[in-house]
Each structure stands twice: as structure tokens, then as C-alpha cells.
Batch of 2 targets.
Target 1
Amino acid sequence: MIRMRELHKSFTVRVKAGRFRREKRTVAAVDGVSLTIGRGEMVGYIGPNGAGKSTTLKMLTGVLTPSSGEVSVCGLTPVPQRTRLALRIGVVFGQRSQLWWDLPLRESFALLRHIYRVPAGDHAARLRRCRELLDLDEFLDTPVRQLSLGQRMRGELTAALLHGPEVLFLDEPTIGLDVVSKQAVRSFLAELGATGDVTLVLTTHDLADIERLCERLVVIDHGRVVHDGSIEALHTRYGSRRSLVADLEKPLPDGFELPGASLTAVTANGHRVTFTLDSATAGAAVAGLVAAVPVRDLSLVEPDIEDVVARLYAER
Amino acid sequence: MGELRAYAALASAQIRSAATYRSSFLVELFGNMGATVFDVLTVLVLFRATPAVGGFSLWEAILIVGLSSAGFALADFAVGNVDRLKTFVRAGTMDSVLVRPLRALPQLLLMDLPVRKVLRVALGFTVLGVALAANDIDWTPPRVLLVVLAPVTAAVFFGSIFVISASLAFWWVDSGEIGSAFTYGGRDFTSYPITVYGPWFRNLFAYTLGFAFVAYQPALALLGRPDPLGLPAWAGFLSPLVALGAVVVAAAVWRAGIRHYRSTGS
């Protein structure tokens, strides 16, 4: 569905090099990205600010012309075949609206039907589904400029889907949304992805979006792909481990050791301890601990994807 | 067919959006009319001081003004909107235009339907009509054809200049009002007989860039006057070709510009 081979995009920027002098410098925003994404895949595309996420998305949608390399989406080359491609993809740029600022949401949707030349029946059916799933009814007649960010984003999602796109590109669809709106957007996308008809590529800074939605995670930094695989593969690769947190009746005896685990924190006057599980199973660690001291409470903490990604970014 | 309906839908959306801001519309409507009135006033004032300018009488000069302002007003009405491109490029909102399944230039032009500029078009053609009646023109069939074609040709030429100068923004985001030097500057240049300009300035604007063929050469051909600068009498009939050349250049510049668009970070 999507193929990129050795994709590059560089920009020339002028940098101040003195009071009047300016130097030209070339910056590679995307520096040799090769990826293949199949039909129905849901891919999370993440990276720190300025890593080249949006630039990649803009090359995939035909907004930017690649400096070099090959790219094809739905079998089309984005820039030369931009208008044909636009009929087959949906795009939500979190920071750029596709809606008409001064018109009610309902009218924006009606206009999009003409712009994308969608048969009236298909359009009505898709709109009905989005209205149900995204609760649009209460603000369908409000001018877009008066909508809250969460309401607008639900409108943008609908706008991107009314022509039944094969690929949906989402650039930070949950940016700035409150918890409830985030949930609404996520569960809507999850439902959409579950049908398997739509290929979904999503950039985000909120890793909960990825955990909830994407099986495949592509991490980009400095314009290069630094990880491509499942979230589990990322944990394995960066050795992120589960940890065992226990509240004890009394502090651990001096020199206590748990085989296959390491003590990483002792708090609350020795009454709370944290072990990182290196090779021990959770069961063995719990048994070992309970044998040594009376335990009041136990919890097993899954590795946090935020930590893993933070470590990934820090490696550069 | 479907595509035409899409553009029509886009235009109707703009009209409905504009209708939500009624009073600013009225202000602009009258502001625009004022501009053309001043074009004519300038020429009238000039001829109060001197009976002839650059070898042309008042009514001959008004014919040149009429051709120039009718063509310019028509171009400004149809494609003048393209000058908002610089705002779109600076803000990166060109992205939204480029993800739609329609061509970028018509979308930009339909971002706003400048009903307020209609009065200006009407005024330009009125000046042209009065000048045609006031001059003693020998109406041969080729001249009838020319008088129909000339304002359209001038509009096409100015339209191309609008597109080219707006496209500067693709390379140079702070192009600001540089483009206006060629659009509004071009209109002012073509409002006078080009005999009034110094040779190098005239060679650059009138012949190299083609502004002589907007109003001056067609006016000569209509009046049946020999060109004091030596071009043959039928030079005025070349205007459509010059305009066509301008369109080709504008299309190439626009296309190169779109590929050079760099969006903004988000």
C-alpha cells in the first residue's frame, strides 16, 4: 500500500552568522527512509520534535516533493499524481483544518461530498456511522470556529473519512485534547482499524495512542528509522524489564539478595522496596521475597513505553 | 464534469462564508471603486497642465487608460486572489489545499469570490467605452475583432503577472509587496503612452516584459496611428500571442513553485 525507498528530503536554511551575514546550510529532514506498509496495517510513526515525522507524511500525501528516493502510495506517485491520490487517501493534520472556518460542520461535510465526488448514498452512510461513533449530533450545526478543539478534531476525522479512503494519515490527531476526547478519538480509530480495510499511519507524541492502536511502531530520529517492529520488540531490544514493588512489614535484612533480580529502590524507611526482574520470573521473585520477610502488599509493574522511548531518544 | 461541480461547491462555500461578514464587504466594495476613479483623475489632471503627453492627445491617452484598467480590473477580479498565496505559504496552510483532490491554483482563486471587485471591472469598461466613442476610429473588421480581444488579452497578461509575482512566495517567504511592483506597477506603466518613458526603462518593461502589448500597441492599431517608436501598424494584433507567452511562463513558474513549497513545521 505504501512504499518508500531511500527517501530523502533536505531543506536549505539561512543561519545568522553575524550582524548582516547569513550562511546557507542544508538540513536533512528525512535522511534515507525505506519502509513498506501493507494493506490494513496500523503503524505508529514516532520520534522527537524535528525528527522528520511530518515531513515524511507530507511527502506521502504529495504536499512536499522528495529531494531524492522513491515513494508510492496506493500504487501512485504522490506529487505528480497528487489529485488522483487525494481521492484515495484521508489526511488529518492536527494543526491544520480541512473544514470551513465560518460554516457549520454539516455544510463542510456536504461540500466535501462534491469535492471528492462521492455518491450521495455512500456519503450519507459514512456520515451516519461517524455521527454515531463520534457523537457529532450536538454540534453539527455550529460554525467550525465556535467548536472546541475536541469537537473540531472529531469533525476533522469525519471529514477525512467521508470519501472512504484506503489509507488514512493522521499527524498528531490527539494533540491538545483532553482525556475524554482522546479516548473518543482512540476508540474510534481502533474500531476503524479493526475492520481491516483502512491502512492507518499515525504520528504522535502521546505513546498511549500507539499502545492502544498500533501493532507496528516505527521510530525515527534525525531523519532515519531507528526502530521498526512491535512494541514488545522494542522492550526486548532496550532491555526494559518488569519490576516488583513490595510493601513490607519490616525492612529487609542486611545483605538480602533475590536471585535473578536487583534491588533498585528502597523507600518509606525500608518498608517499600523495588526489584527489577532481570532473569527471575515474577513467581520466583515473589516466593523468594515472601520467604525472607512478611509482605503486606505486592504489585508487578509493566515496563513503561515512555521510558523506553526516552532512552531511545537520549541515545543520539 | 464532476470536477466542475466541485469547484462550484467551493465557490458557493466562499460566498456563504463571506456573507457572515457583511459590513466589511460593503467597505471594500466602495474602497475598490475609488481606485479606478483615481486612475482616470490622474490622467485628467496631467492633461490640464499640458495639451499632449508623449505625442498623444487627451482622448487617445484615455483610450490607453481604458484598455489598461479594463484588463487589469478583469484580471484582478479573476485571479487577484492569488496574492494571498504568501499568507498560505508562510502559515503552511497550503498543506490543506494540497491534500484535496483539486488543482491548487483554482482552489486558491476560489478561496474568496471578490464580488467587491465587480464595480471596478464595470468602471474600467465604462472608461474604455467612452474613450472608444470619443476617438475617431475607422471601424474595419480587424479593428472590431481587436477591440473585443484587447481587454481580454490584457486581462490574461495581467493575470499571468499576478500568478508569477505571487509564486515568488514559494522561494522567498518574505516576498512581501515586491510582487506588487509588477502587478500594480505594471498597471500604472501601461496607463500612459510608453513614449513618455526613458529608453532603457521602456525597453525593459515595454518590450522585454511585454507590457507595451497590453494597451499601447492595441490602442495604436485601433486609432490607426503609426508608432512613433517604429513598430509596424499591425503590432497591436500581436497582443494575444504576447499574452499566450505570458501564460506559458506563468504556468511554468507556478509548477516549479509548487514543487519548491516547503510547508512549515508542525
Note: The CA atoms of residues 72 and 243 of chain A lie 44 Å apart.
Target 2
Amino acid sequence: MANAASMPHAGIPAQHAPEPNAVPPQIVVADPPKGLERQPLVLNGRSLGSLTDSIAGICEGRMPIWWWPAFIISAGVMTMMATLIAYLISTGVGVWGLNNPADWAWDITNFVFWIGIGHAGTLISAVLFLLRQKWRTSINRAAEAMTLFAVACAGIFPVVHTGRVWFALTPGYLIPAPNANYIWPQFRSPLLWDVFAVSTYGTVSLLFWYIGLIPDLATLRDRAKNKVRGFFYGLFALGWTGSNRHWSNYEKAYMIFAGLSTPLVLSVHSIVSFDFAVSNVPGWHTTIFPPYFVAGAIFSGFGMVLTLMVPMRTLFKLEDIITTRHVELMCKVILATGSMVGYAYGMEFFIAWYGGSPYELYAFKNRAFGPYWWAYWSMITCNVISPHFFWFKWCRTNMVFVFFASIVVNIGMWFERFVIIVTSLHRDYLPASWGYFTPTWVDVFTFVGSFGLFMTLFLLFIRFLPAIAISEVKGVTPQADPHHPLGGAKGGHH
Amino acid sequence: MSFIFPKWANTLPLKVAVGAFLVANAAGAGVWYYLTPKYTRVGYTPKQPIAFSHAIHSDQLGIDCRYCHSAVEKSWFSNIPASSTCMNCHSLVLKDDPKLALVRESFQTGRSIPWVQVHKVPDYVYFNHSVHVNRGISCVHCHGQINHMEEVQHAKPLSMGFCLDCHRAPEEKIRPVELVTQLDWKGAVNGKQLVHDWNVKPGQSCSTCHR
């Protein structure tokens, strides 16, 4: 643009010749209009060194005062769950409220709830990486950690709901391995696919997370003030020196894992939905389940990411790195996936009517107006109505509102799984065996306990590992952009 | 990069990996070998209250299995003989032998001899002796060469896989019904023909044995 302006018009003689000693005209690049400019991903021109200091400093210094009561309460709640699981295993699954006809209830509800929460981490780490969404760098580390902890919570429920948990490890029951009984798992059952889907998901997520951690672990190793920290960070940093070759290998490995994880975002919850959709139970046997479950999983996952990130950015003063723009973008994902979930709820009812099966239609009428109406309408309120507040910028930028809305989203998604599982089962084919599921205190406190496990792991994660990917965040600062006025190529801050 | 690890640590990851690989394989092989019925059950030889020898009674004297285990052709259960069966002979043979004191006492009082059971399938397995021996499955296939045992020993694993091996290929084990108690019989027979003629259809579904 500047070039064109300085060129004389062709064919028109110059009105006056330039003076020989004139100062060359200063090239001024006008700032884009304020309304069009994007907010940078790291605010206040933070230098690269100050980013390292503020992120690494969290796990190097003493934890703030609030961390200790939070940790003690979480660990206590986790211990309560361990006790209740011991009670369950020593007594039998009868300590839970589930029984014919609702043979699945809170156990599988909790499983699907937790596994769904994990999906945001994988979406952020893999899909947004492949789509070059740079805003992921501020939140991917913690979201991936959340994924792992959610998978750990999810894994507990299907294992303990079998009652005799030791069979989970006996070859032939869950693990297909040759054994003296010639027993093999039923390969045509989605329950077995689930075992593979979830264990693959957990493994790939763990490795992906760990690979991303290596450069930051090396940073912590080099900053370590004592030998013990140096030893452990050094051990897991795998001898990282930051050489070109290391970075080259790292980038390749990261890309490969992003590619591997991307199908998992879709496959894991599709297969979880097959647990229901492959059966013949009215209310479960629908082809919309896989995409509907995946959308719901991402919806709930982003809800949980916000529940964790909004307090974290305030408590650790990370507002420059996890900016309002990040929170807004996550709210938009919630709005999009929440709308998909709402659409799926409507479409389920439409197909139940349009499909012409009286049993299917009955199952859905019973869902909304039967004895579990309160669960259904809680779900609708939380999942269909609440995300639409995020059409408004005020709602997306008010952190208190976002925090509570994200909790509402997760309450709604728990109710969704409860509604799908229990309302479909409690009135099955034989009216004589109809029943009403009521949870026992063991049901309730085991579920509460899983939050203890989740929070304990997350608090320990904040305590010992950098909660934000230091090296990646540096790559999205204005300084790292050679075309930015502050960027290195123009002699800005290095 | 600061120097945290001594030089010898360079080879440590490889050593740990190789060591872990070996330990994992050894553990797997150990479980495979020691925790399967081929090891845990085969060879079980409990001390019996009376030193009864199948070798003497069956092999030396030639008493048929069914003389004592008389219900095996009619019942799911192959009975342990009552002491009155023993006394059929032992009221005359070795009638004052101190080794048989417990048999005589049992015969007089009517209290059972506390034999220790050697072969036992779990309670959830419904095994029927009569259906097997009436379709030419010999005692020897599950109990081994009892006729040569001084003390009864668990000879076969009796795992579910063991049952299924035969249920999947009965023609390899089947023999003429009159030879079922001939534990030393090694003759050849057209197994497929017998399976066909007797309409032998061993089930392989769960409910064949677990009801």
C-alpha cells in the first residue's frame, strides 16, 4: 500500500522534482481499526522470561494458603470413596440401589459423565492443534491433565460395578488372553469395544500429555534450586537440551500424536454410546447416539475446563495468559455443542413419533412426563436453556457468570446420562417388572468421592507440574510473530 | 543444561527397559505355568484315611470299576462305595488286618469313612457321569490311569479348556461302550463313525455345563 502511494502516476509528469537531500518519506503502517483488531493471546506485552517465571513459579514456590484446605478436603473425600468401594467389594453390589429392572444406574451414569468430561482435553490438544487454533496453548496442558484424571475417575465405575472386581484382571473376562478356561470376551459386544476404546484413549492421552511436557520439564530441571527437584524433573525431561534436533523430533512426535488423538475424540464417545445404541431397549436403540454423545461430551468437557480454569486464572494471577478472549472462545464452543445437544433432544422425540414404534414413543413420553420428569426437565433447563446465555457478550466475559454456568452445564450433562440410562430401563418390556430406582447413600457418596479423586489429582498436578505449556505459550506471544511490531524480525524484544 | 546425572546413567534407561521386559515376561510365564490347573490341580494326592490301592484291586485283581462305583452308569454322580461293599470280600479276606480297622468300624457303626475327595468340579459345573460313560467316554480320560495308582492322584487338569478339548473333538476319545472301564485299552476305533451312529452332539454353549 505504501509502495503504491509513493509511485508517480504513469504518464503524468511529476509536478516537482524531488530535492536531492530530502529525507526519505517515513513509511507509516496505520493500525487496523480498533473494532477489527484481535486481542493478543498474551496480554500486557509480557516478556518471555516473565512468562516462564509466572508459570514455573507456581509449582516452584510454596502453594498459596487455600491450596492446603482444598487438598485436605479433596484427599479426605477421595479416601471416603476408597472406603465405600472396599465396602462394595466386600459386601456386594447390593449396597447400591440398582436392581431389576434398572440394572444400570449411577454407576454407568458416572462412567459416561466422567469419560465425557475428558473429551474437551483431547479436542483442545489434538483437534485445535491440527486446525491451528493458537488459543489452545494457554489451556491445553491443564485440559489434558483434566482428561487423564477424568478417565481415571471414569475407569473406576465400570470396574467396581462388576462386583467381583478381580475378574477384571483374570484373562478371558476383560482381557482377551489365552487361558485354561478357553474363555474369550464377547467380541461382538460394545462393552468389550468400550474396554479397548477407553484404555486406548487413556494411553494415547497420557503419552500426548507427557510429550508436550518434556520441554517444560527441562525448564523446571534447569531452574531447580535443589537436587531432589533437579533429579526428578531431569529424569522425566529425558535429557532434553532444546537443541534443534530435539525440537524437530518433538514437533514431529507432537503432530503424530495429534493425528492419533483426533479420531479418538470421535471414537471413544461413539463407542460409549454403542453400549446403549447397539441394544434393543426403547430409548437407547437410536442411530443419533454417536454424534449426540460426542457433542455432549465436548459440551460437558468444556464446562469442566471452565470450572477449573476460571478460578485458576484468578487464584494464580494468570489473567494475562488465560485471557478473557480464551474464556469467551470456550463459551462459544459450549454454545455450539450445547445447541447440538438441544437439537439431538428434539430430534429424538421427533424420530420417536415419526418412526411409528409405539414402544419408542412410550419410552420418550415416559422420559419427559413419567416418574422421572424432574430429572428430564433438570436436564433440559441445564443443557438446552443455560448455554444460550452465551449469545451475550456480557455473559461470556463475566467470570462469575461463566463459572456458575459451567457448573450448570455439568449438572445438566450428569442428568442427561441418568435420564438416558434409568428412564429407559425402569419401564422395560414387562409391565410386571417395572420399578423405580432410588440411589442409596453408598451410590451418592461414591459419586461425590470421585470428585475427591479428581480434585486431588488436579491439585497435585498444579503443585508439581507447569499448568500451562510454557514453551507453547511463548510461541503465540506478539514477540514471537515476526510480522508484529514487537516481533523479533523488526528488532523488538528477543 | 546442568549436570544432574553421572555418566553411567546414560545406559541406565536401556538396562531398566531390558530388565523390565525380562521381569514382565518371567511374571507372565510364571502365571501361565503356575497359576493354571495343569499345575495347581494335577498331582494332588491327599492322604486318605485308609491306604486303599486301586492298583491292587483294579489292575492285579481285575475288579471292574463299576463293582464299587456302581451308580456311574445311572447317575450324574459316581458314588464312593459304602463300607458294606468292601465287606463283601473283606469279611473273609484279611478280616482281622489292622489296616482295615476303620472299614470294619464303619460297617458296624454306619458312620462313613472320611475319604478325602480328589476330583471335584466347581458347584456351578453340572457334570454328568452317566451321559459320558454310556457314550463311550472312558474313566481314563478324566481320571488318568487310576488302575495303576497306589494312591489316587489328580492326573488331569479338569479345567474348562480340558472339557472343551473333548467336546470339540469327541471322535478322538470315544470308544465302544463295553471298553469304557478298560483303562489300559489302546486299540483303534473309527471314532467318527461312533459319533455319528450314537448321535453324539456334545454342547459347547455355556448352558451345557452351567445352568
Note: The CA atoms of residues 77 and 129 of chain B lie 6 Å apart.
